[in-house]
Design a protein that fits this description.
The structure holds two protein chains of two kinds. Chain A is mainly alpha-helical. Chain A has one domain: Arp2/3 complex 21 kDa subunit ARPC3. Helices cover 64% and strands 6% of the residues of chain A. Chain A has six helices and two strands; from the N terminus they run E-E-H-H-H-H-H-H. In chain A, strands 1-2 form a two-stranded antiparallel sheet. In chain A, a hairpin with a 2-residue loop joins strand 1 and strand 2. Chain B is of the alpha+beta class. Among the domains of chain B are: 30 residues; 174 residues, Thrombin, subunit H. Chain B is built from three helices and twelve strands. In chain B, strands 1-2-5-4-3-12 form a six-stranded antiparallel beta barrel. A six-stranded antiparallel beta barrel of chain B has the order 6-7-8-11-10-9. Chain B starts with 5 loop residues before the first helix and ends in a 39-residue tail after the last strand. The chains are: A mainly alpha, B alpha+beta. The interface between A and B is medium-sized, with 36 and 31 residues.
Chain lengths: 177, 306
């Protein structure tokens, strides 16, 4: 995976991006550390889900469903592990596995470089993740959880907005072809 | 072995991973386990980064809080300023009450130390309306036994004399008034001379001959010759001596704080008051008068016997 190549699907071609060595690991680690550290000092920033944003970004960029779901799984499980014993392992893991898979699958079919498309996709994936989490809570953990509320809508919009900006920064980690 | 089509590989992988995680979840729920091993690994791995991140974000927050997030600081500052002013006022009131309590305690101690001397404590309720005179008004009058020409003192020293008595109040002429004065004597030389006010904060010892030696710092006490003040009540300290002909100009700093009088004592008699045993003096002015009393006899050194 050291070269940039193109996926050909009929007349359209979608570029698959490569990143500098360690960029994915560092970005994921930074997102996880940020997620556990920043809310301590800036409680309002707990609304952000940086691990989700990183999962989405690399899923959309790599456009390989297998690597996307694996990356989502690893990030989700580490997030579970860092979330304390009240969050069972697999809670975020399942959700981010699905999101990673969907992101890389969609990224292989659509051009996701435009900020508007990114905003919409992040919003969508945030809602998807939330739906999976609620499902897990309700079905597996027997914990009542609302499907949707205003806070979630705001959180989705905020994450989408920040994600769109963050993705511009993460684009710099790409190798030039 | 059945080969999985390549386009289904990722789906198969997804299904497998999801199934594995669901099983892991189920195991955790069933056994009430929390996957401690993975958590320990994750936390151990994240700890250095979290610690570094916490340090960095703490610094960022500090910079933000102290330099950028000052939007509400002005309002907060204003509120604190108002609160500070209110607290200052409260402190001032409390200090005033504490000082008043001290003064009253001094008066009480003074009275207790001189039980044999009839006296009445009085509160200063007014001062002269103009600068032309130095008088005060006290809340004791005829019904309290106050009469004109009675001596008014504080534990620090002489204040003045009663010049006007009403039923419930009296007016006191201070030593600093131009009309005020008292019979006085120098503590060491026992030279007796009257002192009188000049309208200034200080008083003046009069008729001191140019050849008489009056050192600066010498204490002055009442002589008892004026038939108003008992002997040996501190009047003040010589602060300035200027040569003159035929008399020196001797300025005396009053022992009593005449510009800050709030409570005074009206002596209902001319009997001697032993200031040496005065426990009520708040600053020891009255108790530390060298030579005021004769240690052997207990009376003023060189003073005339009554």
């Amino acid at each position: 995976m050291n070269e940039t190549y193109e996926l050909r699907s009929g007349e359209t071609h979608i570029e698959v991006h490569k990143f500098y060595p360690g960029a994915v690991v560092l970005a994921a680690a930074a997102a996880l550390v940020f997620q556990t550290t920043v809310p301590v000092y800036f409680p309002r920033l707990s609304i952000l889900d940086l691990p989700l944003l990183v999962t989405i970004y690399f899923g959309l960029s790599r456009r390989n469903p297998s690597t996307g779901l694996l990356l989502g799984m690893v990030i989700g499980l580490v997030q579970d592990a860092l979330s304390g014993p009240t969050v069972p392992l697999g809670f975020y893991g399942i959700a981010k596995t699905v999101v990673g898979y969907l992101a890389s699958s969609i990224g292989g079919r659509l051009d996701t470089e435009h900020p508007a498309a990114r905003f919409a996709l992040i919003f969508l994936f945030f809602v998807v993740q939330q739906g999976i989490l609620v499902l897990i809570r309700r079905l597996l953990l027997a914990q009542p959880e609302p499907w949707f509320n205003l806070h979630l809508a705001v959180a989705a919009a905020v994450n989408a907005l920040l994600g769109t900006i963050l993705f511009l920064g993460l684009d710099r980690l790409r190798r030039s072809s | 072995m059945v080969a999985i089509p390549s386009k289904h590989k990722s789906l198969t992988l997804l299904a497998g991973i999801l199934l594995a995680q669901l099983l892991m979840l189920a195991v955790q729920i069933k056994r009430d386990s929390h996957g401690r091993l993975l958590r320990v690994w994750a936390i151990s791995a994240a700890y250095p980064f979290e610690r570094t991140g916490a340090w960095g974000f703490g610094k960022i927050r500090g910079v933000w809080t102290h330099y950028f997030a000052l939007r509400s600081t002005e309002q907060e500052n204003e509120a604190l300023r108002i609160e500070n002013d209110a607290l200052k006022l409260t402190i001032s009131q409390l200090k005033s009450r504490a000082a008043e309590a001290d003064r009253l305690a001094a008066i009480l101690n003074f009275k207790q130390a001189h039980e044999q001397v009839p006296m009445v404590a009085a509160r200063v309720i007014a001062a002269s309306a103009g600068t032309a005179s130095c008088t005060i008004e006290i809340d004791r009058g005829e019904r309290d036994g106050v009469r004109t020409n009675m001596a008014v003192i504080t534990p620090d020293g002489a204040v003045g004399k009663v010049i006007e008595v009403f039923r419930g109040t009296s007016q006191v002429l201070l030593l600093t008034d131009k009309e005020g004065g008292a019979g006085a004597m120098l503590v060491n030389t026992r030279t007796q001379r009257p002192v009188g006010g000049t309208g200034d904060p200080t008083i003046q010892m009069k008729y001191v001959a140019s050849e008489e030696n009056v050192p600066v710092g010498e204490k002055i006490v009442t002589s008892g010759m004026d038939k108003i003040f008992p002997r040996d009540i501190p009047i003040g300290t010589v602060v300035e001596v200027k040569p003159g002909n035929p008399f020196k100009l001797v300025r005396v700093e009053p022992a009593a704080k005449l510009d800050r009088l709030e409570t005074v004592i009206v002596l209902l008699t001319q009997a001697p008051v032993d200031f040496k045993n005065d426990a009520g003096s708040p600053n020891g002015t009255a108790t530390n008068q060298p030579g005021v009393r004769n240690p052997a006899s207990g009376t003023a050194a060189g003073a005339e016997k009554p």
